[in-house]
Amino acid sequence: MEDVKLSRMPLIGDPAPHFVAKTTQGMITFPEDYKGKWVILFSHPADFTPVCTTEFMTFASMHDEFKALNCELVGLSVDSIYAHIAWLRKIQDIKWKNFKHVEVRFPLIEDIRMDVSNLYGMIQPGQSNTQAVRAVFIIDPKGIIRLMLYYPLSTGRNFDEIKRCVLALQKADKDSVSTPADWRPGDDVIVPTAGSCGTAKERMESKDDDMYCLDWFMCFKKEKKAK
Asked: Is the pLDDT score of 6 beyond 70?
């Protein structure tokens, strides 16, 4: 591990803190190695634990789904590289739900000294001084933190929600819109709120078939359903 500088806990909109680390897929320089890609950087409390095992099996099974979204996965815990390798090999022997012979192909960071964990606020003393919480950072192709989720040690993550968040962020960037509660791809999206009385009036009186307003501040753009 090198080039790690401890600082305040990163926030949404901050550049992802830089580090160089050893992983199960070799050395990485983060976030520079992932320029032009979305990244999900996530931590887990410990190798060879049941909740973490179900999470890694799920993430591994969705690896290709995320790759199709130009999104890479990077895991982390405070265990050694040898513990990581042994655990990932053991995961291939475990059968759970519809998962079996699952191979983890994304990098898992060795963070014995907790340098990266502290850099990203993954060590939270109210939960543990020696294990990382279940943190999730979604980082955009420019290396900016766009979303953060924190789960306690006891609660496994919802991976459909993590994927939904990536899709929602990509949609917002592509079309300069926002997504409403429980948005899914294909659902209508929210256009930016009117910035003047004139624009608000125009929208409320508009006959545009592709947009509708519930009130002057709340207008939606219809999404074309795939045939």
From this structure: no
Q: Is 197 a catalytic residue?
A: no
Please, which pLDDT band fits residue 202 given cuts at 50, 70 and 90? confident
User: For a pLDDT cut of 70, what percent of the chain falls above it?
Assistant: 95
**What is the Cα 190 distance to its own chain's centre?**
22
Q: Tell how far CA 183 is from the center of its chain.
A: 17
The listed CATH number (3.20.20.150, 3.40.30.10, 3.40.1160.10, 3.60.15.10) that belongs to domain 19-174: 3.40.30.10
Identified catalytic residue from 52, 71, 165, 219: 52
Helices 159-175/50-61 angle, 10° precision: 40
Q: Give the bridge partners for 21, in sequence order.
A: 28
pTM of the model: 0.90
pLDDT beyond 50 at 8: yes
Exposure b/e, 138-171, CB count within 10 A at least 16 = b? bbbbebebbbbbebebeeebebeebbbbbebbbb
DSSP bridge pairs for 139: 39, 145
